[in-house]
Design brief:
single chain; mainly alpha; 10 helices; globular; disordered N terminus
């Protein structure tokens, strides 16, 4: 029994040594995850400070902008009238427009993508139209929305709809067309109904492509709503930026740029998590 005890005692330091590299590797991974973003933001702030100095403070410094941000976010939900509301209300109004336009686009675009990908006749029929209309700038559709809907809010929602629908149609159709033909042959042999083919075969296979289209669409929608609100007015982050420009308040414009970026990043991150949960694989940006 004594030799066994000696072997165990000798094995313990070896096991501890084996664990040491893994712990060092974890620290190295954490360091690599934290250091590059910190250096990137430091570089951005440094360039920003140099630009502020070289323009004789016509561009506010990072410190001045930070002080202004503290003031703005101390009360983001104030209301002093229909055209004087806090930044929080403007963000929520923009997100509401994006949600409505994006939801309508998903309700139309995803089923249309399934149909176009499933039936060759529909694919040949609609592909030329999609190729013609997809490159059109979303803001070019805004005057049509104003003419048809006679209001700024419906026109902005229409613009979000028309710019969000193409990625969902195209990615869903591509996903349907890439379903292995063996699956369809089995469905034909089993004499499955079209509903069962869609729900049991196509939908699970197409889901990763569909979620990719959703991610692309929501990113585009958030980009477009800012420009659309600059033109239509009302309450929204785009109108808030334009109003601050009319007041020559550059600090608030810079703050709005960071807010727009952070909200877009949160939307992208949320959709990546949803895509990963449903596709059972890591989704990269």
């Amino acid at each position: 029994m004594a030799p066994v005890a000696i072997e165990k005692a000798q094995a313990t330091p070896a096991a501890e040594k084996a664990k040491a590299p893994s712990q060092a590797l974890d620290w190295r991974g954490l360091w690599l995850a934290v250091l590059p973003p910190v250096l990137g933001f430091s570089l951005l702030i440094g360039i920003w400070a140099l630009v502020s100095i070289s323009t004789a403070s016509s561009i506010p410094s990072p410190f001045e902008t930070f002080k202004q941000a503290v003031v703005i976010f101390s009360d983001p939900f104030y209301r002093n009238g229909p055209n004087d509301q806090g930044l929080g209300w403007n963000i929520l109004m923009s997100l509401e427009r994006v949600a409505l336009g994006f939801g309508l686009a998903a309700a139309v675009g995803i089923p249309a993508g399934f149909a176009i990908g499933r039936f060759e006749f529909l694919s040949r029929m609609f592909n030329p139209l999609i190729s013609l209309l997809r490159p059109v700038s979303p803001l070019a559709w805004l005057p049509i929305g104003l003419l048809v809907f006679k209001g700024a809010d419906p026109a902005a929602i229409w613009t979000i709809f028309i710019c969000s629908i193409w990625p969902m149609i195209i990615n869903t159709a591509v996903g349907v067309q890439r379903v292995p033909q063996d699956y369809m042959n089995v469905a034909r042999v089993l004499n499955l109904s079209e509903w069962k083919i869609v729900t049991k075969i196509l939908f699970p296979s197409v889901l990763p492509y569909m979620l990719t289209g959703v991610r692309l669409a929501v990113g585009t929608a958030w980009l477009v709503i800012v420009a659309a609100e600059m033109l239509t007015g009302g309450v929204g982050i785009g109108f808030w930026v334009w109003d601050e420009w009319n007041n020559l308040n550059v600090k608030n414009i810079i703050i709005a740029i960071f807010v727009i970026g952070i909200v877009g990043l949160i939307l992208e991150y949320a959709l990546i998590k949803i895509a990963t949960a449903f596709t059972f694989e890591e989704v990269k940006t």
